[in-house]
Amino acid sequence: MALSSLIFLIAAVYVYAALIKPSYAEILELASMRAGRQESVRNFSELNKQFQDILNKYKNIGELKEKISVFMPSEMDLSYAINQIIGVARLNNIEIQSFSLKPMAIKPEKSFVKGRGILRIELKMSGAYENLKSFLKNTETNFLIADVVNFKIDVQTNNPNLTITATIDTYYQTN
Predict the structure, then answer these.
(1) What's the CA gap between 130 and 137, in Å, rounded?
(2) Is it the case that residue 55 has pLDDT exceeding 60?
(3) Which of 19, 131, 147, 175 could make an S-S bridge to 127, C-beta 3.0–4.6 Å?
């Protein structure tokens, strides 16, 4: 029995020395590689999340730019400006008799808007006093940013409506 125990002990030492000990070193190396790769995956996941956050911010900036372009178009858009003014006139029962457009000099800006262009609209129109008053108020609170720069009221003796000549500046962004 002592001999079989000795043979069993020698076999166990041989199995440990020949098979388990080299495999254990390999297992430690693989565990170290696994820990390194898990750290890399965590780093890449964190970087990916930060990248997605940055992309979402820039996406939101694009949406913000679109929203701003409703109020201040990104380029001179004559038809948009005229449609806004004519729409406000129709809403207030004002008859536009004539209009003219005049692009003004571009004013450079030191903000996120690169420059600001002005489109000057000269209008001659007629309507009742309350309607003209509403037209002026609605023009300044309309979607399109606009300022009534000048206006002149003419009263005609044979006509109950007033005739007004107005100068309105609308704005747009320049590239």
Answers:
(1) 11
(2) yes
(3) 131
